[in-house]
Structure formats: structure tokens, C-alpha cells
Design goal:
sodium:proton antiporter activity; two-stranded antiparallel sheet; transmembrane; mainly alpha; 13 helices; 2 strands; Ionic transporter y4hA; NaCa_Exmemb; potassium:proton antiporter activity; A middle domain of Talin 1
Length: 368
Amino acid sequence: MSSSATPLTRQWTTWGPIVAGVGLGLGWGRDLAGLAVIAIAACLIAAVLAAVHHAEVIAHRIGEPYGSLVLAVAVTVIEVGLIVTLMAGGGDKTSTYARDTVFAAVMITCNGIVGLSLLVGALRNRVAVFNAEGSGGALATVCTLAAMTLVLPTFTTSHPGPEFSSAQLAFAAVASLCLYGVFVAVQTVRHRDYFLPVPRPGADGKESEDDHADPPTSRQMWISLGLLMVALVAVVGLAKLVSPTIEDGVESAGLPKAVVGVVIALMVLLPETLAAVRAARRDRMQTSMNLAYGSAIASIGLTIPSIALASIWLSGPLVLGLGPLHMVLLVLTAVVSALTVVPGRATLLQGGVHLSIFAAFVFLSFSP
């Protein structure tokens, strides 16, 4: 870890989140244009890179799968706050914002992050190896949560349109929260070994070690935890600051409004993406899978209950049901992901297949 080579207080990863937080404070509530947007974008990039660094420091201290869980939950909690903030007072025009953001998060994590990680891992070792038991259980949880919250509203009849009735929304929220709790318990306690990186035999026949550096001290871990929170708040807040510029660009180009949710989700999930790719480069493919599927589970399992609770005072409808196009992409993702995960081994082909589905999702978001 670089934290052991250089004092933590002298690193750019310490000042990056602070500068980004200052930029967020100066830009909040203002109309940004020109150089201000460029400065905010630079702060956003610094905050993303700093978040990845501090998440790795924490993961090195507490070990897997707790490290990936910390990053996934932290980003999702702040993302939920962003969704509720944008939906408050938005009325009908924000009725699909939660659905679009959650579905974009599922497609980004299950196809974008997984595909990119498999590609990097396969390029490094020809075959990317991970734990089929842990990844399979996580994938099953993602598919169940997605079907209950994004597919069923399209077919229920108690409420007109692709919406849940109040009772159905309450059931979906409680079921999502319970299923998320069970997954976390299995991942961290009962079957923790299913979510640990698979050791690969080295050239001498002995198990290779993933990281030879000494773990950071408790003080360094707590500092990194605080800076991680600052960085993640800055990432989501800065994404919100640049969203009006994105909305103006989308509107002037005549693109669907859902594109805004996709772009913001891409920015918010950048820390997980970079962390997963870096883990794959270090031959820790299971960590990459934990980050990808864990982020998808947290995105649904925490967002839907929060939105259900917030809907008590939010004005306007809450549309959760997917259309036919997105349902096809979701089913294709579930089938391909199952075929990828079951063997516990993947090649460049699987990575390319997932990335092609992700590319189709992005393209069809711009041109439905």
C-alpha cells in the first residue's frame, strides 16, 4: 500500500476529497457554466480516484469481503440521498427517475463492471477464476430483487400503469430489505469463505500472495474511512452539480430523458468500476465480482425501501415497471450472467459478451 510508503497527510488522496468538498460547497445552488463546469469535473475525477484509494486502504485493513461491502454500501447510501433529493418537488417529470437509475446501476454493474473485470483478468491470466458459490448466490439475489421491484410493477393490476399500489410497494420494500440483510449475513458471517479471492497456484507450486505490503494501522484506516465518506459525498454532490449541464445537452440534442439517469449512474459508479478493475489486475477476481454484484444488490435493496418511505411525502407518481425493451435486456443479462458464473471460470469471450450487452444498453438508451 502506498500509505505505508508516504505519510497519509502528505498524499494527494488526502487533499483531493477536501478540495472536492470545498468545490461542492462553493458550487452548490449556483448556475455553473464554462470554466466552472470544467473545475467541477476536475474535482469529480479527483474525488473518484481518492475514493478508490481509501476503499482499498480499508479493504486491506479489514479484509474481504468487508472491504468491497464498505464501498458498495457507502456509494449506494449516498446515491439514495441523491435520488430522493432530485425527486423531491419534481412531480411527474421525475416519476421514472428511481427506476431509470436503479436499472442503469444493474446494467452497469452486471455487464459493464463484470465484463471489464473479466476482460482484464483474462488478459492477465488467460482464464479469470472466481468462486462460483458466492458469485452465484449474489447473482441470484440480484435477479430476484430486480424482478420483484422492476418487472412485477408492469404486470400488477391493482394500480393503473406500471406502478405498485401502496400495499404492494410496502411489500416490495420490506422484502428487498430483508433479502439484502440475508445476503450481507451470508457474505460476512455464515459463508464468508465463498466470497474470498480464489488462490491461484504460483509457478513454484505454492499459493501466490495477493498483497505483500503490511496492512495499514487502525489510525490510517479510520482516517481513510472519513476521507472515503467525504469523497463519496463529493462524487454524488458534484454529479448533481453537473447534471443541469447534462440535462441541457440531452434536451438540446433531442435525446430521451432517461439518458440523464444513465450518465449520472455512470459517474456515481466510477469508484466501484475503478476498484473492480484494479482488483482484477491483481488477480483478485472474486473481489471484482463482490463489488459488481454487491453494488447491484445494495442499489436495489436499499434504494427501493428508501424511495417507498420517501413516497409518503414525495409528490407525483412513482413508476417502477420496466418497458419491453429494458425487460429483454434484463432477461438477457440474467441468462448470460448465470452461464458466466456457474463454471467459476471465464475467458475473454465472456467478458466480451457482457460488454456487448452493456454497449447495447447504452446505445439503446440514446436511441431507443
